[in-house]
Amino acid sequence: LDQLSGGQMRRVVLAGLLARSPRALILDEPLAGVDAASQRGLLRLLEDLRRQAGLTVIVISHDFAGLEDLCPRTLHLRDGVRLPVVAGVSFSLAAGECAVLGGPSGAGKSSILKMLYGNYAIDSGHVLVRHDGETIDLAAAQPRTVLAIRRDTIGYVSQFLRTVPRVSALD
Question: Once rounded to an integer, what is the mean pLDDT over residues 76-100?
Answer without folding.
Answer: 65
